[in-house]
Structure formats: C-alpha cells, structure tokens
Amino acid sequence: MSNIFGFQKTISHTIIIDSSKQQIWKALSNFSSYNKWNSLVPMASGHLLAGEKLKIQVSLPLSEPMNYQVIIVEVKENEHIEWLGHFKLPGLFDGLHSYRLSTISGNKTELIHEERFRGLLVPFVWWSLGPKFNARFSESNERLKHFVESEVI
Fold it and tell me: Which residues of 48-79 are buried (b: 16+ CB within 10 A; e: fewer)?
C-alpha cells in the first residue's frame, strides 16, 4: 500500500486462542459466521481469493454501519487473510486489514489482528476513529476466541 503523504496509524491486537489454526481458519474464512463473532465486520460476502472483491460492513461504536467494497490482497489457507479498502477514493483513508495465525504449541494459536490506515484524512479523523477501531478490534478478538473455543464450527 503506497503512502505518498506519510500519514499512517496502525492498530494491532494479539490474542491467544485455545484451538488449532485450522479451526480458527474455518471461522475467519466463513463469512456467513461473521455476524456471530465479528463486531467490527459483522457482514462480509464474496470469494476468498487474492484479487477478488469482497463486500463488507464496518460497524464502529456510536456510528452508523458503513458498507465498503474491498480487494483481497493475499490469502494463505490456515495462515492469513489481508484485504485493502478505501473510504471514497484511494489516498483519503485507506485500510489494509489482516488476520495472521501462528501455532504456539499443540492446540494454542496466536491471532494477530491488524489494520494499517493511511491517507490524507488520517491525521484529521484519528482522534475520533482510533479509539472506536481499537475497541472493536479487542471486542472482535475476544468474541472470536469464545466462538471458536465453545462452538462446533
């Protein structure tokens, strides 16, 4: 993701889930289950293939949900998903969103859930959006952990 203006912020949350990468992958790659655990992106549809477009809905606290079309940048089964979205036009407020899975030991997996924001609007809206994104990242991770550890996927 190019950044000619230099305005960048990153949110990164890590959580340990008592489950295999394969089980967590089932939840991450099954868009129809997002409304059960993903409070940040409660709706996603499309094909999980690099270069494909997804339709997603982003939900932040005290804000109306917003619909976006994002492009899947990279997918590696049981490892990671990465997509890129833009607010209105590329370069205004772009987000590179990722889920990365790493086996810690046996049935314990580390999930790194991250988004890198870049663009002209970042320094002007971050004071408001940053805390909302942070809250949703943390909440989504905890809900995913509970969903995978307690549900049969």
Answer: beeeeebebbbbbeeeeeeebebebeebeebe
Contact residues for 147 (Cβ-Cβ < 8 A; gap 6+): 27, 33, 36, 37
Contacts of 98 (CB under 8 A, 6+ apart): 80, 81, 82, 83, 112, 113, 114, 115
Distance CA 32, CA 35 (A): 7
pLDDT score at 62: 86
DSSP summary character for residue 41: S
Over residues 26-54, the pLDDT tens digits come to 999 999 999 999 999 999 999 999 999 99
Average pLDDT over residues 48-69: 95
Other C-beta atoms closer than 10 Å to the C-beta of 47 total: 11
Residue whose token pair is 């899947």: 72
Bridge partner residues of 103 (DSSP): 109
Q: Is 13 helix (H, G, I), strand (E, B) or coil?
A: strand
